[in-house]
Specification:
The chain is mostly helical and 459 residues long. It is built from 15 helices and no strands. Helix 3 runs antiparallel to helix 11, helix 4 packs parallel to helix 14 and helix 5 packs antiparallel against helix 12. GO terms for molecular function: L-amino acid transmembrane transporter activity.
Length: 459
């Protein structure tokens, strides 16, 4: 058998840092036997299995882990521990079916890799005839959802940074500035770092952010075990009205669906992503265990006083605690550039052709400035970290992380590849129902909290 010509570098622009999908969909013809996408990956610059695992862990173990104690506060110790494992399994499964569907479609249409939006588009395009006309809409929907998700998460970042500096500076200096004042000040560095359009310039910021986050985790663990843990006054099961907030917070913390396809697309051996143990299974076990442990210990340590980030519960005025709060705030500030880059890259590719090329620079500057100021306006209107986390998790991550992968697999396998007794049909219906439940109940509970907060402010 002749050696596949595919050992050459792929024409697809596959970059781990490119969270937007930009695969060059050019079919390869004239191959003998079954098309193997791995043969057409860039073997020189592609990611190793260990490298892919490191990147996947990096994208999953972010600031969301610090919100897990708040989730346990909503769900109670026993319910939250069990539910965290269940949600972790569901998130891992949804990643699995998205990647598996993408790899199968790559074989069908003979391309080396597909991004998130292209995977959904091609699933519809090659699915049931009645749904093929929806393929373009499906792609635009995923891209729009990714943009909304990252812009909303950027609002969470702004509020977190402002709240951290507010707590430290006001306590240590005696100032009485409001959180809104710190949000306004936080927008200044955001306006600067948000203008960076080259990912290579963001690498040093990400590297420093990772170091600061590791140091912060160490300090948090020190405080968690600095005093005896008290279990007696903690709820085993939270109130029924708070359960939706638990799910929305955990989904926000655990979901990293936007980074999945770039990680898989950059691998030399994509089959290792879903293998046993594989990148996905190994990484998700580590992620779920760490999230469950931090959530459990954080709630036991601080009880109902726990805040949207556990760093905000650390002892005020203590040098080590202040260091942790400021390091985490700076780390999130450094990460803001990448968080803001992702949706802007998607948006600019959608609208760039409408403007004269000689005006692209000034238009990009103006566009990024306006978007950051609008984000700041939302934060000033509602400077509550907890509500932002719940709302973003309920609306955006429920759709992207659970609903879209389930629908994508269902459309691709329809009608005769749904397994024995069509069990995959019923499984995906259940997943979609859970996503809709998390969306409706979580957003409703969050909106109710928003109304309550605004009412208290007015009264």
């Amino acid at each position: 058998m002749t050696e596949p010509k595919a050992k050459e570098a792929s024409k697809s622009e596959l970059s781990l840092n490119d969270f937007n999908s930009r695969t060059d969909l050019v079919k390869t013809s004239g191959d003998d036997g079954e098309y193997n996408p791995a043969d057409y990956r860039d073997q020189a610059k592609g990611q190793s299995t260990s490298g892919a695992m490191a990147h996947f862990l990096k994208s999953s173990l972010g600031s969301g882990i610090l919100a897990m104690p708040m989730a346990f506060k909503s769900g109670g110790l026993l319910f939250s521990m069990i539910a965290t494992l269940v949600v972790g399994f569901l998130c891992a499964h949804c990643v699995h079916i998205l990647v598996k569907t993408s790899q199968s479609i790559c074989k069908d249409i003979k391309v080396p890799a597909l991004g998130f939006a292209e995977t959904v588009e091609k699933a519809f395009e090659n699915g049931p005839k009645r749904l093929r006309s929806w393929s373009k809409f499906a792609k635009v929907f995923v891209d729009a959802s990714l943009m909304a998700t990252y812009y909303a998460a950027a609002c969470v970042y702004i509020v977190f940074i402002a709240k951290s500096f507010h707590d430290v500076i006001n306590y240590d200096t005696g100032l009485e500035w409001s959180v809104r004042a710190y949000i306004a000040l936080t927008l200044i560095p955001c306006l600067l770092i948000g203008q960076i359009r080259n990912l290579r310039w963001l690498v040093p910021f990400s590297a420093m952010a990772n170091i600061f986050i590791l140091i912060t985790f160490g300090i948090v663990l020190y405080y968690l075990f600095s005093e005896p843990l008290v279990f007696d006054d903690k709820d085993l099961v939270g109130g029924i009205t708070k359960i939706p907030l638990f799910f929305s917070t955990v989904i926000f913390a655990m979901e990293g669906i936007g980074s999945v396809m770039p990680v898989e697309n950059a691998m030399k051996k994509p089959q290792d992503f879903l293998g046993c143990p594989g990148v996905l299974n190994t990484s998700m076990i580590i992620v779920v265990v760490l999230y469950a442990v931090i959530g459990f210990l954080g709630y036991v340590r601080y009880g109902d006083a726990v805040q949207g980030s556990i760093t905000l519960n650390l002892q005020e005025g203590d040098a080590l605690a202040d260091t942790a709060k400021l390091l985490m705030a700076v780390a999130i500030q450094f990460t803001y550039g990448l968080q803001f880059y992702v949706p802007n890259d998607i948006l600019w590719k959608m609208i760039a052709h409408k403007f004269n090329k000689k005006n692209h620079n000034i238009i990009q500057i103006a566009l990024r400035t306006v978007i950051i100021l609008i984000s700041g306006g939302f934060c000033l209107a509602l400077p509550s970290l907890e509500i932002f986390i719940n709302l973003v998790g309920a609306i955006f991550f429920s759709i992207l992380g659970i609903f879209v992968p389930s629908v994508c697999e269902l459309v691709y396998l329809w009608p005769d590849r749904l397994g024995w007794g069509k069990w995959k049909l019923y499984k995906n219906i259940i997943l979609c129902a859970f996503a809709i439940f998390a969306l409706v109940s979580g957003s409703s509970a969050s909106i109710e909290e928003i109304i309550t907060t605004l009412t208290k402010k007015d009264s």
